[in-house]
Amino acid sequence: MIREYLLGQLSDEEQERVEERLMTDQDFFEQAMMAETELIDDYLAGDLAEAESFENYFLSAPQQRQRLRAATIFQRYVSESASAEVPHVSEGIQTPTSWLRRLLAGIQIHNVPRKVEVD
To answer: Could you tell me the pTM of the whole model?
Structure first.
């Protein structure tokens, strides 16, 4: 029902019920946020059967158009970063070219077991 709501495919009565629930049910609201993200991802991947409803209804709100722009930029960044090579530093630690690789490298460095001396 959330997907249909986001695409403007519900009756006025159903739409009103969904909107009331969005205001009072945190879990339902979070599900709606995830459904919005999935719609955007499917649209960008070209896998959205309801592309016309998405363009005409979902994207009629400025905040949704902004989310689509942000997702497009992020997708482009990830795709460009994934194709970049990771250069090696002389100490043998890789210098990541993407935020994800930097994050993972940071986690690995901070989780290296340290030698503990016992007196």
So the answer is: 0.61
Q: How many CB atoms sit inside 10 A of residue 48's CB? A: 19
pLDDT digits (tens, 9 = 90+) for 40-64: 989 888 988 999 999 999 889 888 8
Distance, in Å, from the CA atom of 5 to the CA atom of 43, rounded to the nearest integer, reads 16
Rounded-to-10 torsion of CA 46, 47, 49, 51: -30
Phi/psi at 86 (5° precision): -100, 110
* DSSP three-state, residue 1: coil
**Structure-token match 């994934």, residue found:** 82
Which phi and psi (to 5°) does residue 88 adopt? -105, 140
Q: Please classify residue 51 by burial: count the beta carbons closer than 10 Å to its beta carbon, then call 0-12 exposed, 13-18 middle and 19+ buried.
A: middle
